[in-house]
Amino acid sequence: MNLFSMSMPVTEAAPANITAPRPVAQAERIQIIDILRGVALLGILMMNIPVFSMADRFSDTFRNDPTNVNFWVSAVITVLFEGKMRALFSMIFGVGIILFIARKEQSGQAVTGLFFRRMGWLVLFGLIDSHVLLWMGDILYFYGIIGMIAFWFRKIKPGYLALGVILVAIFDNVMYVSFYQDMRNKRLAYVAVEQQQKQGHKLTAAQEQTVKDWQDVQKSFLPNKVEAAEHTRLMKSPDYLTVASRYRKEVWDFQTKYLLHGIWDPLALMLLGMALYKWGFVTGQWPRRRYIQTMLLGYGLGLPLVMFSFYYGYSRHITDSEAFIRYMEKHSIIWANLIYPFQRILLVMAHASLIILIIQSHKGQGLQYRLGAIGQMAFTNYVMHTVICTLVFYGYGLNQYAEWEFYQLYFLVAAIWVLQLIVSPIWLRHFQFGPLEWVWRSLTYWQRQPFRRTIPVSKL
């Protein structure tokens, strides 16, 4: 039986005043939220594309060289965008949880099963994106799982949600320190065993395990030059399965072994998004002066913090994996990294305020319309990034992996932005959803959703 031709199973008559669950209609969409989502999605590609395209340790050659153009491209992206675009996307995902649920609950519809089915499909799509399309940085899997957790916080007052962000940020720092300490302890234990080995002592089973534990950590997070070269060889293979062998175990470890380390940051940001929606921030309901104040405060505090953090890494001459290992052996904690969640929240709030101020100014409405279309088709456009980048860079595609300079990647980023700015609004003039959004909605409601528009939307 065709899944999309099935109706929802009926076990008893529904009350007359309760309508069947349905997706949000076009007229009910909030343009500011679509635009913010679109900006975040395009921004995320700036951070993702090096993972698709660059060899391990690619930044060794320019990380501490201000005479290299790649240094400055990396500096600008790190200071202004790294982590901020994903934070904005997570916040809007939290908003989306409330929007998906609120109208249905107000009309008396049961939403828990519907929402968890929606998130379950998102987890499956994430597994496909990561293990079939081979995007190791996939967020769909994690958002599906974290969305199920965030669901239970949706009715909490916004003040408590915002407090939860602070608590989770602190806990996230604790988790980071714990992760760093665990890595450092394994390194120090390995060094001690290495000294024993140099003195001619035969290693015990426990010591051999110590060696293996460190080698596993190094291979996953701090590959040496030989391992990096082997990874590049695998990525440039014309055989799909060979390329897949480079990523699949590592991806699965992140999705299972390190899952608890990865859920707190997106969860905090989803909760913040919920609070900001309830406060009216993301829907443009604040007075203009409050957005200006938020922007000035965010940039005024956030930029010095992130620039200090960037300078700290540069001035300490942590140029490569070996330098980081030496630094780790001598330092029990990297204090500068603890400011990361705080500078990122300050800057993402400043970015969001600036975007909302631009929207409210009614300047560049054509571009705003296109960004909103990208945000409305965020799922499709996100997976399009995977398809385009893997086919350009992986060995079974155009085999451009490890062939480009870092700055050259952003010509492709710009080209993908232009493509999606053109294609997304054209698509939505003729169809109600992006193709993957349509599949996701049909699976969520367990019923084939209308796809084509009966009356195409006219151009601006």
UniProtKB/TrEMBL annotation:
InterPro entries: Bact_Transport_Assoc, DUF418. The chain crosses the membrane at residues 35-55, 75-102, 160-179, 258-279, 291-314, 334-359, 379-397, 409-428. Keywords: Membrane, Transmembrane, Transmembrane helix. The keyword Membrane applies. The keyword Transmembrane helix applies. Residues 276-447 form the DUF418 domain. It holds the Pfam family DUF418. This is DUF418 domain-containing protein. It comes from Dyadobacter flavalbus.
